[in-house]
Design goal:
- By secondary structure, the protein is α+β, with helices and mostly antiparallel strands.
- The chain folds into two domains: 1-31; 104-284, Protein Transport Mog1p, Chain A.
- 22% of the residues lie in helices and 28% in strands.
- The strands form three sheets. A seven-stranded antiparallel β-sheet has the order 5-6-7-11-10-9-8, sandwiched between helices.
- The longest helix has 31 residues, at 65-95.
- It is rod-shaped, with a radius of gyration of 61 Å.
- The termini are far apart.
C-alpha cells in the first residue's frame, strides 16, 4: 500500500481508500491516474535531396565540311571532264580530213561555193585548152568545151564532151559528163556524199580511188572524189572523177571517165583541162 495525495485536501491518504478520511471526498472518481509518457517513434529520416540531374552530353554536331569538299571535288571533276571532251571534239572536227571519212557529218563545213584553196592532189590542172572553144547551150545550162571534142547525150539527159561516140550515139571513153542534179534543199556536199555512199551498188568491183576533197577555181568551189570500176564495154578498169558544185540556184554533177591503160596520164590531163573549162564557164539556164 502506498500513500497518495487527496485531490481535494491534499492530505496523505491510502491509495486503497475509497474516500478521503480527512475531507470525505470520493477518491474512486477523482483518483488520478498516472500518465505514461508514450515515447514517439523516432522521426523518419528526411528523404535525401534528389541528386542534381546532370544533362547527358550532347552528341557532337556532324561536320559537313568533308561532305561539301567531296561534293565540290566531284562537280569540279565533271566540269573538267566536260570541258576536255568539248575541246577534244573541236580538235577532232578541226583536224578530221574528208580524205579519212566521207560521211556527211564530218565533211568540211565551208560554204560549198567558197571551199578551201584547191588541194595539191586535185586532178584539175591550171592549164586551159589552147584550141578554140565552142559553147554548148541547152535548156537548163550552158558551158564551153574544146572545139576538137564533140557533144553526145544519153537517155538520162546527161551531156557528154567526148572524142568519139558509139554507133548508138552514146559517148565512148574518154569523156566528161555534165548533169544538173539534186534537189532544192541539197548542197554540193550533200550531192557528192549521196553519190559516194550509193555508187557501189551500180558498178562492178567498185573501189574508191581518191577520197572526197574540196577544190576551188576562181570563185567556183566544188567537192571531188574518184573511184575505179570494171565496165562491160572495156577490158580495162575505168577511173572516174566526180565533181559536185552549185552554180546560181542549180546543183551540178560533173564526171570525167578514162580507161586505166598506158596512156591514162596523158588522157586524164586532157580531161582535167576540159573539166576546168566547164567549171569556169558553166551557166545556169533561165
Amino acid at each position: 500500500m502506498s500513500l497518495i495525495k487527496c485531490p481535494n485536501c491534499d492530505k496523505s491518504v491510502s491509495d486503497q481508500a475509497k474516500t478521503c478520511p480527512h475531507c470525505g471526498v470520493d477518491l474512486t472518481a477523482k483518483k488520478k491516474t498516472k500518465k505514461t509518457k508514450v515515447k514517439s517513434a523516432p522521426a523518419a529520416p528526411a528523404p535525401a535531396a534528389p541528386a542534381p540531374v546532370v544533362p547527358a552530353p550532347r552528341p557532337p554536331k556532324p561536320h559537313h565540311f568533308p561532305f561539301l569538299l567531296g561534293f565540290f571535288i566531284v562537280i569540279a571533276g565533271l566540269i573538267s571532264a566536260g570541258i576536255n571532251i568539248f575541246f577534244l571534239i573541236k580538235y577532232i572536227e578541226k583536224t578530221q580530213s574528208p580524205e579519212n571519212n566521207c560521211e556527211v557529218s564530218v565533211l568540211p563545213t565551208e560554204n560549198p561555193d567558197e571551199p578551201k584553196d584547191e588541194p595539191k592532189d586535185s586532178p584539175i590542172t591550171p592549164t586551159l585548152p589552147t584550141t578554140e572553144n565552142k559553147t554548148y547551150t541547152g535548156k537548163r545550162f550552158s558551158f564551153e568545151y574544146p572545139s576538137d571534142w564533140a557533144i553526145a547525150t544519153d537517155s538520162y539527159n546527161n551531156i557528154y564532151v567526148t572524142k568519139s561516140t558509139k554507133t548508138d550515139g552514146t559517148p565512148d571513153y574518154p569523156f566528161v559528163m555534165v548533169h544538173e542534179d539534186g534537189t532544192d534543199d541539197m548542197t554540193a556536199r550533200d550531192l557528192i556524199n549521196e553519190y559516194y555512199n550509193s555508187a557501189a551498188r551500180y558498178f562492178t568491183n567498185y573501189e574508191v580511188y581518191s577520197e572526197i576533197t574540196t577544190g576551188k577555181l576562181g570563185d567556183r568551189g566544188f567537192y571531188q572524189y574518184a573511184y575505179t570500176y570494171n565496165a562491160p564495154s572495156s577490158s580495162n578498169r575505168i577511173i572516174d572523177y566526180r565533181y559536185a558544185l552549185k552554180v546560181g540556184d542549180g546543183l551540178f554533177m560533173l564526171s570525167s571517165s578514162v580507161e586505166e591503160d598506158d596512156n591514162v596520164k596523158t588522157t586524164q590531163s586532157d580531161l582535167n583541162k576540159i573539166v576546168k573549162l566547164i567549171i569556169k564557164s558553166l551557166k545556169k539556164g533561165e
